[in-house]
């Protein structure tokens, strides 16, 4: 069987991109019960890894290379910026949530700090960094445009929280994670994401990022 023409292949790739990064988050936000989020993320991750494997040409060992290039100053800066931003948002909007876990369930915080990087940050990074920049490279704009698009779809993937706070924070975070991935490799993006997420939950921003608190606006 003959290969599809380049224009057809590009069109199919765009359709796949739209389904994965726009359609799936929209369906999850509109219809998925909040308690099934991790199951959906697991399916999403397996599908993404399958697509990455089918693409070919991806160096899988790159996922575990680059630990020596971790941007420690940026990691500390993001941790501090996340802490201060979270405190400012909560002070203005939900002061009772400030350090809620630390005050009420301190024994639960180490559980979050251990499992969030593995069960949430890791699969998200696989889908939104290696898969995005490798399989869909031919569709991406040049330079900073690719990073901006990556941050935008990463933010849209959090539509399920129905919060402008979440949308803004994930766009900014996605920008830094994408840049770290392109400049320093996968471990840097994963660590930055894990640290930012752990600080958010410690400071009390689970008020926005916990699916159990989500209220759909319809």
UniProtKB/TrEMBL annotation:
Q: Which domain of life is it from?
A: Bacteria
| Claim: Protease is one of the keywords in the record | yes
According to the UniProt entry, the coiled-coil residues are: none
Q: Could you give a GO molecular-function term held by this entry? A: endopeptidase activity
Boundaries of each CAAX prenyl protease 2/Lysostaphin resistance protein A-like domain copy? 109-195
Question: Keywords in UniProt for this one?
Answer: Hydrolase, Membrane, Protease, Transmembrane, Transmembrane helix
One Pfam family in the UniProt entry: Rce1-like
Protein's UniProt name: CAAX prenyl protease-like protein
The scientific name of the source species is: Paracoccus versutus
């Amino acid at each position: 069987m003959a290969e599809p023409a380049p224009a057809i292949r590009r069109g199919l790739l765009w359709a796949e991109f739209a389904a994965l990064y726009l359609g799936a988050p929209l369906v999850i936000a509109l219809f998925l019960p909040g308690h099934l989020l991790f199951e959906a993320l697991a399916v999403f991750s397996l599908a993404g890894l399958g697509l990455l494997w089918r693409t070919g040409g991806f160096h899988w060992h790159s996922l575990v290379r680059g630990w020596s290039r971790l941007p420690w100053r940026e990691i500390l800066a993001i941790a501090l910026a996340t802490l201060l931003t979270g405190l400012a948002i909560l002070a203005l909007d939900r002061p009772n949530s400030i350090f809620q876990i630390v005050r009420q369930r301190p024994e639960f915080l180490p559980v979050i700090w251990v499992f969030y990087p593995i069960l949430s940050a890791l699969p998200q990074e696989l889908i939104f960094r290696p898969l995005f920049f490798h399989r869909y490279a031919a569709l991406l704009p040049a330079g900073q445009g690719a990073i901006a698009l990556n941050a935008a779809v990463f933010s849209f993937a959090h539509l399920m929280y129905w919060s402008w706070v979440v949308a803004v924070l994930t766009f900014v975070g996605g920008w830094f994670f994408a840049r770290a991935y392109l400049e320093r490799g996968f471990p840097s993006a994963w660590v930055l994401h894990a640290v930012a997420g752990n600080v958010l939950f410690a400071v009390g921003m689970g008020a926005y990022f916990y699916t159990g608190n989500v209220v759909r606006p319809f």
